[in-house]
Amino acid sequence: MAFKRNVFINCPFDTNYHTLLKPLLFTIRKIGFTPRIALERFDSGEARFDKIKELLLESKYSIHDLSRIKSVNEEEYFRLNMPFELGVDFGCKLYHPNNKYRSNRFLLMEGEQYSVQKGLSDFSFADCKCHNNNSEQIVTLVRNWFIETGILNLPPPSKIWDEYNIFYSELYLRKKPEGYSRKDIVELPIPEFIQFIDEVI
Question: Does the pTM exceed 0.85?
């Protein structure tokens, strides 16, 4: 049953993406699913690719955000990790000997309309949702995608977004008296952040 409720998240881990990642995680937990992300645990002795494969094999659903495949600054490298992990996931769906992976569902997201078609033309056939790097929009995209995969009777996007903002205010109210600084709260490790989501919802 865990497999059918797990959602693998393939996304950037830079600080600027945290404003999108946090409502993304909240939305997944709010509708009763479990986010699986490489940041859920850290062990310098664990090969990262082995961890990625494990998370993929344990998840029926995957969200791939390719919004960092385009470099911004001169001489900056564009990000290859996200397209690579998407390819591994797609290969698992097509070629894994266990037929249960044939029914896996993907959500592809981008920050700029049609950027994935330009940067990853092999996936030009696939529908890709654009969140425009907007936190509220990512809540809408993820919630609506679950509806489109057959997970019905979910709260409307505006309600989830409102509850996320209340949740985040509550996070500050509870953590500040415990000695957490503003920086501590912004940089809260993902397992701790998810734990707090579960305490509040």
Answer: yes
